[in-house]
User: Which sequence fits this backbone?
């Protein structure tokens, strides 16, 4: 540019500070793009006088484009009229590249017609100052955009860290569920096949399930869902898991276990937080399954023999954590060879279709009966139901889905 | 969720509608605060227009009941429908609070 467009100093105004109590901007990388050596030197002197130390230069848009591809500056101070590649073309190319799109571009130019200004903003510039440049204006605007960039970078870093931590927490949550080895041992020693499916929601959730051998001929199993979503719900699943690991084997009576667990949760959960849960035990010697429920979706069981038919079983019960010393009920089913029990979290029946209609329990049992009728095996049922659920949730799953299928294979 | 308050003398009726979920936390806590600080003779939550409720919504109903109990104000849940009614039933809420169909 021409030497008439120089920086106009304003001695009466204090310099804009680049170090505040919360942010030190002095090391932020600034790229000055102008074909005039004099302007580059003047802008550099202005920036240095305010304490900026990391300043680089380019003589035209093409050199600048190469430079920002190699190393991203924190801000670009850009002239519009330059040979080889002008400022408009530079803006267009820089903002069309996802890697460089977020770098703020501050235009400094003598081109200040309405069309020039609109075009510059349309092509991705964030701000514009007219020549002759006033040093206090340049510094104030540079500082504002650098502060925004630093804050945005901190927010992005934080968001990325939280995502990584949530992913790690989700992995840990899944790791506390029974291992394949545990399930194989139960199948080999007690003849009980346990199939499961877990599908986490887009965020951390409050579903958990488990199974453990209690004695030579008995296992305990459970499925639970803490209210709400997020980290707090997930932490509560760890709390439940840890309590069960310590106390489960003391109980031969599921209802008694639920009552003690309920008191523990009443003492440790906030007032509005609770868990729905079904805890049961299978005695393979007697061919009986006893369970106690606290507001879970209705379990579905199927007896052995040719007349066996999948039927809903009651699960009425106050969710755990609401009322201390609440009484829970035991319910017992015949569970001999060939019997099956299907348990699921509410996400399954609350899955909605395109019209917003929930799938519902009646459709679920219809699909289970249909899948069982075709192949008479638990894995076919599980596959079919998961497939039906998938048809209703093509995007992110809104809630955790847990399904357990217990089969007495004898 | 939407809420519309109808005051009939000392009786307060909240007409609730649409889905009731965790997203309604702020709105419903306002209702709970109103119940806590009210000198009314009774609070009804009319849920005939509520199309669905999630686990967080159920927890907030319990909070509203607790707030009314603490203030010694009679509290009723009125006309729950469909999935809402089913969830209240399976959760045995009728053993704790008045639910009228």
Assistant:
């Amino acid at each position: 540019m021409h030497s008439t467009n120089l920086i106009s100093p304003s001695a009466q105004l204090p310099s804009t500070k680049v170090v505040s109590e919360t942010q030190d901007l002095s090391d932020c990388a600034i790229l000055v793009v102008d074909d005039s050596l004099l302007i580059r030197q003047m802008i550099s002197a202005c920036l240095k006088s305010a304490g900026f130390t990391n300043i680089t230069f380019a003589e035209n848009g093409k050199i600048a484009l190469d430079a920002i591809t190699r190393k991203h500056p924190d801000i670009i101070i850009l002239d519009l009229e330059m040979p080889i590649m002008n400022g408009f073309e530079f803006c267009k190319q820089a903002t069309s590249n996802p890697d460089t799109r977020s770098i703020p571009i501050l235009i400094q130019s003598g081109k200040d017609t309405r069309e020039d200004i609109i075009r510059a903003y349309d092509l991705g510039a964030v701000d514009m100052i007219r020549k002759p440049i006033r040093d206090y204006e340049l510094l104030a605007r540079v500082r504002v955009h650098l502060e925004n960039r630093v804050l945005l970078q901190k927010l992005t870093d934080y968001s990325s860290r939280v995502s990584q931590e949530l992913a790690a927490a989700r992995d840990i949550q899944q790791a506390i569920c029974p291992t394949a080895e545990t399930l194989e041992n139960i199948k080999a020693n007690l003849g009980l096949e346990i199939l499961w499916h877990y599908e986490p929601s887009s965020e951390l959730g409050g579903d958990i399930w488990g199974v453990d051998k209690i004695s030579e001929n008995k296992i305990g199993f459970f499925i639970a869902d803490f209210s709400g979503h997020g980290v707090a719900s997930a932490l509560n699943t760890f709390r439940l898991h840890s309590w069960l690991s310590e106390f489960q084997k003391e109980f031969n009576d599921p209802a008694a276990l639920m009552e003690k667990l309920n008191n523990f949760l009443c003492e440790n959960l906030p007032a509005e937080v609770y868990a729905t849960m079904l805890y049961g035990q299978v005695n393979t010697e007697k061919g009986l399954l006893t369970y106690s429920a606290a507001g879970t979706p209705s379990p579905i069981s199927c007896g052995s023999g040719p007349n066996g038919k999948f039927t809903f079983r009651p699960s009425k019960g106050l969710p755990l954590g609401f009322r201390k010393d609440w009484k829970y009920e035991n319910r017992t089913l015949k569970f001999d060879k060939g019997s099956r029990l299907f348990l699921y979290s509410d996400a399954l029946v609350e899955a909605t279709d395109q019209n917003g209609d929930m799938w519902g329990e009646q459709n679920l049992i219809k699909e289970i009966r249909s899948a069982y009728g075709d192949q008479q095996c638990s894995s076919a049922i599980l596959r079919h139901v998961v497939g039906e659920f998938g048809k209703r949730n093509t995007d992110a799953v809104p809630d955790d889905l847990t399904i357990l299928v217990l089969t007495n294979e004898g | 969720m939407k809420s519309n308050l109808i005051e009939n003398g000392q009786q307060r009726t909240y007409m609730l509608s649409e889905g009731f979920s965790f997203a309604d936390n702020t709105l419903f806590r306002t209702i709970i605060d109103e119940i806590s600080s009210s000198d009314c003779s009774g609070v009804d939550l009319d849920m005939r227009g509520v199309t669905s409720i999630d686990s967080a919504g159920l927890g907030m109903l319990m909070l509203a009941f607790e707030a009314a109990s603490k203030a010694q104000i009679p509290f009723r849940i009125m006309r729950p429908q469909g999935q809402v009614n089913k969830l209240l039933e399976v959760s045995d809420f009728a053993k704790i609070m008045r639910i009228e169909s």
In short: DSSP finds eleven helices and 15 strands in chain A. Residues 1-5, 11-15 of chain A have pLDDT under 50 and may be disordered.
